[in-house]
Design brief:
The longest helix is centred in the first third of the chain and has 38 residues, at 2-39. By secondary structure, this protein is an alpha+beta fold. Helix 11 (378-391) packs antiparallel against helix 12 (395-408). Strand 4 and strand 5 form a beta hairpin. It has a 6-stranded antiparallel β-barrel with strand order 1-2-3-6-5-4. A 5-stranded antiparallel β-sheet has the order 9-10-13-12-11. A two-stranded antiparallel sheet has the order 7-8. Among the domains are: 1-39; 44-238, Thrombin, subunit H, CATH 2.40.10.120; 410-493, Serine Threonine Protein Phosphatase 5, Tetratricopeptide repeat, CATH 1.25.40. The protein starts with a helix and ends with a helix. It has 17 helices and 13 strands.
């Protein structure tokens, strides 16, 4: 035994060394990962507070700002200068810096680029207009116990108004904030900014929009850059009445489905700026839901006049032309929309429906495959793909498509009914049919067809009690189908 032990000792020592080295490497990698994760949080020194000073020289917070690359300018919201407010920046730890000028402003997007009397500010990169994904995690600055911290939030919605106006929805915890609230990605890059715009009647703001930034439109501080606007003129400039003052409340009304109010706000914006494509686009949607389809068509054509490659305007023009029973023109509008933007899934879906109605299965299948994700009609795309597969006797593919439709929309009754009937027809899958059709009946208890097929599937599953229960309900809902079920039950005795 001692001889064996002496022979194994060198091997045991070597094995112990390997285990220790592996542990140390793993620990080092874990520490590196943790450090890397923390490094992704934006530096606190890049986020600044825009303040005004009261009569006693005490700062009053008006909004946020962020120092951006490459020149170290401060990006904030023009709303921070409303009513003569703003004028001083505060950086950690409570250091005051004078704002010396405004080098760029965008009243539509409520943006201001400022020069500041300060050195050593820490700028962050701006990612630009790269796409953001649903459920992507972002950083949002918040104050907790007078301390600046970064809160992690999820992207819950994406809303494209036009190529230059893209909004991100971050959920309730990020729904309200000061003007100029920056939003960062997980790489610590600035991607968006929240803006609050007053109602035109002077009321309080109702919505905080987080816009994706596009720094390609910002001026460079190289030679030939515009001369900064004097500080004394910033407040006056920011408070000028512009089309944007009416546009954003119009958009808020559109989201709230207040079509009359949206129509009024967008019309007011167009009175100020009759060459405002997004305002025509917004008013067209309001008119569409007010069933003024001719007015919607006129507005969309105006939007396309001032912004010829406006993909979403072509999409809504197609929907409007469909309501006007001009299907060939609608198809052309949808085609133009996907030519401009091949990722516009909603337009692919509409083209698919037109092809489906014409029984052009190959074209419909192609279009629905382009709309299986990334649009509100994704579940319906899978449903249509299921019916096409079923017509070709591709049962397995049809079952998978119907199940995918239900997964995307658990309230989708038609998908439950189609899948349940298909499983019942298969015979050997009666138990699955019962389960699916039972869920369908829960979503639509008054549908007599679903109850009939549920009873038929229960009979195949030897559940006569369940089938009898459906028969008794059908006697009130649909006596004709109840009589048909009674005959089937009598033959099965």
């Amino acid at each position: 035994m001692s001889k064996i032990r002496s022979m194994l000792t060198p091997w045991l020592r070597a094995l112990r060394s390997v285990v220790i080295i592996t542990f140390l490497i793993t620990l080092s990698l874990t520490r590196l990962t943790i450090l890397k994760a923390y490094a992704l949080i934006p530096p606190q020194a890049s986020v600044v507070t825009v303040v005004s000073l009261d009569g006693q020289g005490q700062p009053l917070r008006q909004g946020w700002g962020v120092v951006v690359e490459p020149q170290g300018l401060v990006l904030t919201s023009l709303a921070t200068f409303h009513n003569g407010q703003g004028g001083v920046l505060v950086t950690p730890p409570q250091t005051l810096h004078l704002i010396t000028g405004l080098v760029f402003q965008d009243k539509l997007q409520d943006l201001a680029l400022l020069t500041v009397e300060a050195e050593g500010l820490k700028p962050v990169p701006v990612r630009g207009s790269q796409p953001v994904k649903i459920n992507e995690r972002l950083w949002l600055p918040v104050r907790k116990n007078s301390q600046l911290i970064f809160q992690e939030v999820k992207v819950q919605g994406l809303h494209t108004i036009s190529p230059r106006l893209k909004l991100i929805e971050l959920g309730r915890q990020a729904a309200a904030g000061l003007p100029g609230t920056p939003v960062f990605n997980q790489q610590g890059e600035l991607i968006g900014m929240g803006h609050q715009l007053d109602q035109p009647d002077g009321g309080q703001e109702t919505t905080c929009y987080y816009l994706l930034l596009n720094p390609s439109s910002w001026p460079s501080m190289a030679a030939g850059a515009p001369k900064p606007l004097a500080v004394s003129d910033i407040s006056e400039s920011s408070h000028d009445l512009s089309a944007a003052t009416w546009f954003w409340p119009g958009l808020a009304a559109l989201v709230a489905q207040d079509w009359d109010q949206a129509n009024k706000q967008f019309s007011a914006a167009l009175n100020v700026n009759p060459q405002f494509p997004e305002a025509y686009y917004g008013r067209a949607q309001a008119r569409f839901f007010l069933k003024d389809f001719s007015g919607a068509e006129q507005d969309l054509n105006q939007a396309l006049k001032y912004l010829p490659d406006y993909d979403r305007a072509y999409f809504w023009l197609g929907k409007t032309l469909q309501r006007l029973n001009r299907q060939p023109e609608a198809r052309l509008a949808y085609h133009r929309a996907v030519q401009i933007n091949p990722d516009l899934a909603e337009a692919h879906f509409q083209l698919g429906e037109l092809a489906y109605q014409a029984r052009d299965w190959p074209r419909a299948e192609h279009c629905f495959n382009q709309a299986r994700q990334g649009c509100p009609q994704a579940a319906h795309s899978w449903y249509y793909l299921g019916t096409i597969a079923q017509s070709r006797r591709q049962t397995s593919q049809a079952v998978l498509s119907f199940k995918k439709a239900i997964e995307l929309n658990p309230q989708f009754f038609d998908a439950y009914l189609a899948l349940g009937k298909l499983l019942w027809q298969e015979g050997g899958r009666a138990q699955e049919a019962v389960q699916i059709l039972s869920q369908g009946v829960q979503h639509n208890p008054q549908n007599s067809e679903a109850r009939l097929y549920l009873a038929l599937a229960q009979l195949l599953s030897r559940d006569r009690g369940g089938a009898l229960e459906q028969y008794l309900i059908l006697q009130d809902l649909n006596p004709r189908l109840a009589a048909r079920l009674s005959q089937v039950m009598a033959r099965g005795r």
